[in-house]
Write a structure and sequence with these properties.
Blueprint lengths: L1 E7 L9 E7 L5 E9 L4 H18 L7 H25 L7 E2 L1 E6 L4 E6 L3 E6 L2 E4 L6 H7 L5 H5 L20 E5 L5 E5 L1 H4 L4 H8 L6 H14 L6 E7 L7
Helix pairs in contact: 1-2
């Protein structure tokens, strides 16, 4: 199993509010996390770092996550706890008004694969050389597409396409989407909207299927492609390949 993660400020933002990690516990189970922070006075990076540090550290200290039901319970509890931590930080630091973060996670064991999502970061699996998107964005525009008020084409350049309907730190209760995913997938790919805002799923898939590149080189190439197109947001990627070779 090979994995790599990387975050980049991009070419427009003055600092990076994303946080990303891939951690492993004593049983060799993996947790991948991408968090895209928001808020004034650099509070976005505080919120995203709290998610990655708090949840990542707790997972790495586990001997095992247990059953699928145990895993879902653990994930929900930890999302609730880090949401409370972000709200508490905001109360104690008024200058950080509006801090919050998206989060997308993938928990991988030999028996199951679970995705968790809040916000507009994205989670995918690669299976049989096809990239499949698992998560859906909690954005105003996506909601309008789902209700038929906008077409997918109209949504692409909509002026409010980045308005979030859900984020950690935005409310006392923040219910995540939980996805029980086919465990036969070859690879797992997570990213912030700094990547998906610049590259289509087809363009991402093309890079991931390039047999001449290593896992690390694929991640670096995707980020370079975003920056070549303007890099107007922070860009974060976490990629894990479950096969012995580099090609998913």
């Amino acid at each position: 199993m090979k994995s790599f993660y990387l975050t980049d400020t991009g070419r427009v933002r003055s600092h990076n509010e994303d946080s990303v990690t891939i951690v492993k516990n004593a049983s060799g189970e993996h947790l991948m996390i991408v968090a895209d922070g928001m808020g004034g006075h650099r509070a976005g990076e505080i919120a995203s770092s709290m998610v990655v540090t708090q949840i990542g550290t707790r997972f790495s200290n586990l001997s095992t996550i247990g059953s699928k039901m145990d895993a879902v319970k653990w994930l929900k509890e930890n999302v609730d706890e880090v949401n409370a931590s972000i709200l508490k930080y905001g109360d104690e630091h008024p200058e950080s008004m509006g801090l919050g973060t998206t989060v997308v996670m993938a928990l991988l064991t030999k028996d199951f694969l679970i995705f968790v999502n809040i916000g507009d970061s994205s989670g995918y699996v690669l299976k049989n050389k096809v990239l499949h998107k698992i998560t859906k964005e909690h954005t105003l525009v996506n909601f309008l597409v789902e209700t038929g008020e906008l077409t997918p084409e109209e949504a692409i350049n909509h002026p409010k396409k980045n308005v979030l309907m859900k984020a950690l730190g935005a409310a006392e209760k923040c219910e995540p989407d939980i996805f029980d995913v086919d465990n036969e997938s070859n690879a797992v790919f997570l990213c912030s909207d700094g990547l998906t805002g610049m590259l289509s799923d087809e363009q991402i898939e093309k890079v991931l299927l390039d047999s001449d590149l290593t896992v690390e080189e694929k991640v670096v190439k995707l980020i370079k492609k975003c920056n070549a197109r303007g890099g107007n947001d922070n860009i974060s990627v976490a990629y894990l390949v479950r096969e012995s070779g580099d090609v998913a």
